[in-house]
Amino acid sequence: MWRHAIRRMSGLAILLLFCLPAMAQDCSGPALRGSFLQPALGDAWTLKQWREEFHYMRGARLDQMVIQWTADSKEKTTIYPTSVAGYTQNTKHDVVERALQAADASGAQVYLGLQINDDWWTKYLTDKPWLENEAKVADILADDLWKRYGQHVSLTGWYLGFEVDNVESTRAEWGNLVGFYRTVGHHLHKLTPGKPLVIAPFFNPTAGFSASQWQTMWEYVLKRSPIDVLALQDGVGAGHARKAQLPEWFSAVQNAIQDSSPNMQFWADTETFISGYEPRPIRSIVNDMCAVAPYVSSYLSFSFNHYISPQQVNPLYYQTYLDYLASGKVERVPPTTPAGLTSVALDSQTIQLTWAASTDNLGVVGYNVLRDERQVASVRDGTTSLLDLQLEPGTTYTYQVRAFDAAGNESELSNATTATTPEPHLYPTNISRGKPYSATMPANPSYPDTAGGELTDGILGSTSYADAAWQGRATAKVYSFTIDLGAVQAIKEVRSQWLQDKPSGILLPKQVSCFVSDDNVNFAAVGTVSKPLPGDDTLSLWYTLTDLTGVSGRYVQLQVKPGSNAGWTFIDEIEVRQ
Q1: Quick one: 314 and 362 in the same domain?
Q2: Do 112 and 99 form a contact (C-beta atoms < 8 A)?
Q3: End-to-end CA distance of the chain
Q4: Is residue 432 within 8 Å of residue 411, measured between CB atoms?
Q5: Strand pairing partners for 231?
Q6: What is the dihedral of CA 500, 503, 507, 508, to 10 degrees?
Q7: Which of 166, 398, 432, 551 could disulfide-link to 576, CB 3.0 to 4.6 Å?
Q8: Global confidence as pTM
Q9: Are residues 379 and 312 in the same domain?
């Protein structure tokens, strides 16, 4: 089961990757009706922003919001002031009350997610006692939520956040899932008659059951389970599927529903994000909705609130979507070509790019940067410059840039420019080899730090995450390593090697910061390496601080800021050189 732990995480869980190119033809008609909201975003909003969010949703014909979870049963936390024994609120505000108040005023509907628990991704359907306990927790949470918020007219239904996928499972495991659904579903229907229960499974065509086998599984499960709405994640934003694969998988689920529970509603959960947790082009969203239109009756999204709302992203995405709703077509005017691209090597690892801005009929939202004819970055902050970091010394690189708008239209490529990074200073002695170290967060048991010495053993991993040299952590929290060099020494270079395997949910760190200390108490900052621009390839990559001047210490600490809200980071080596 652990072999599938990385692959099983869905778009809702890890918000990953992948954008299809714009299709030659637009289709017209479908529109989003609802959106998932993750609690941290709602907790950051003021009351005014909550009201404005529902105003923007109404303007875009959305009247449904699904609060993805209200509790974490592993961490024993909630997003509201709970009465459940052993649980504490971990948000600044009562996110549930704010959502329901704003929805009441707007005439919108809110579905409350019950709990999440990271252990789901490893225990899955195999651990019947664990599932049975989670069902009891869900019932207790529902009682608490209904007692506290049942008076709100906008409280429309419930959502179960344990996302089922097509990893191969046995009929006995299907029975475990049925038991979970029956315990929670019957309780909710008795507690709140007429309020529907929603689930949102996902699929990965490259792993596990085929579409026809998955259909068989869902026929078995849905025939025996009190589920009211199945909202199938399309998986395109997460890189699990391509648009051309959607009809096969959506028709399989539609057949399962018709054969087992014909009164159930079948919705799509359209993914609206791309690599780097950025907004998906509006044309791609529309085309994905069109691909599943013959099978579904409505569209949720993950997520209008996070990736289309003008409160969160460039307002041109919202405006372009409104234009589509008004005309039935996504506009096709491309931006003008960026001009005057130049490149300058700043040091042995860094090249600076600058160019002149493009124009567009609605507005440019960003620029795609190509290095040696492969896209490696998107600039979306309104600037017309980029630092390409952590490059190979003594290497010549060629760059081009193209502009894009919110619809997905792209300009022609700019002029090409080249720059060569200087040869490096070499620091041949690795003074951390074989030295002891500590970590503030242990490696995941499935991808462990074998014998507690992998980071300084000099053994480098391949580009397979299954290579024993790698150790992995699934967290959004900052963690650190501290190496004891045994004595105060001069330090000229510090580097660490990381893995990127985006289809498996393994991302490079957002930042790695280095600190040194003589006493392991008082640390001084040395520098920070920000995430470089490797593109989407599966690869290993060094984060390096080099040519350090006046740096010394006995203890070297690396603080790691993960690259996602729910992904993995894999490291195999740390080197301190002089």
Answers
A1: no
A2: no
A3: 44
A4: no
A5: 267
A6: 30
A7: 432
A8: 0.85
A9: no
Contact between 88 and 39 under an 8 Å Cβ cutoff? The reply is: no
Distance, in Å, from the CA atom of 192 to the CA atom of 157, rounded to the nearest integer, reads 8
SS3 315: helix
In whole angstroms, what is the distance from residue 407 CA to residue 382 CA? 17
Range of the domain at 501: 437-577
Distance of alpha carbon 430 from alpha carbon 575, whole angstroms:
6
SS in 3 state form for 345-411? EEECCEEEEEEECCCCCCCEEEEEEEECCEEEEEECCCCCEEEECCCCCCCEEEEEEEEEECCCCEC
Which of 559, 532, 557, 527 minimizes the C-alpha distance to 543? Answer: 532
Q: Tell me the pLDDT tens digit for each residue of 534-561.
A: 888 899 999 999 999 999 999 999 999 9
Q: Note whether 199 and 322 are same-domain residues.
A: yes
What Å distances lie between residue 102 and 38, 106, 300, CA to CA? 16, 6, 19
Count of other CB atoms within 10 angstroms of residue 320 = 25
In a domain, 432, yes or no: no
Beta carbons within 8 Å of 315's beta carbon, 6+ residues apart? none
Q: What is the 3-state secondary structure (H, E, C) of 427-477?
A: CCCECCCCCCEEECCCCCCCCCCHHHCHHHCCCCCCCCCCCCCCEEEECCC
Residue 298 and residue 230 in contact, taking contact as beta carbons nearer than 8 Å: no
Which residue, among 573, 521, 577, 512, has the nearest Cα to 551 in the 3D structure? 577
480 neighbors 559 (Cβ within 8 angstroms) = yes
Q: How confident is the model at residue 565 (pLDDT cuts 50, 70, 90)?
A: low
Tens digit of each residue's pLDDT (9 = 90 or more) over 94-107: 999 999 999 999 99
Let me know the angle formed at the C-alpha of 32 by 28 and 38, rounded to the nearest 5 degrees.
150
CA atoms within 13 A on the CB side of 295: 25
Q: Is residue 454 part of a domain?
A: yes
Residues 6 or more apart whose CB falls under 8 angstroms from that of 141 comprise 70, 71, 78, 82, 84, 114, 115
Encoded amino acid at 38, one letter: Q
Whether the Cβ atoms of residue 534 and residue 376 lie closer than 8 Å to each other:
yes
Return phi, psi of residue 473, to 5°: -135, 130
CB proximity list for 9: less than 8 A, separation 6 or greater: 121, 505, 566, 567
Contact 349, 360 (CB under 8 A): no
Asked, for residue 217, whether it belongs to a domain, the answer is yes
- Is residue 1 a part of any domain in this protein? no
Q: In angstroms, what CA-CA distances link 554 with 131, 204, 435, 551?
A: 48, 47, 11, 11
Sign of dihedral through CA atoms 310, 314, 316, 317?
negative
Count of domains observed in the chain: 3
CATH of residue 569's domain is 2.60.120.1190
pLDDT tens, residue by residue, 493-538: 999 999 999 878 899 999 999 999 999 999 999 999 988 888 888 9
3-class secondary-structure state, position 302: strand
Distance CA 548, CA 527 (A): 9
- How many residues appear in the chain? 578
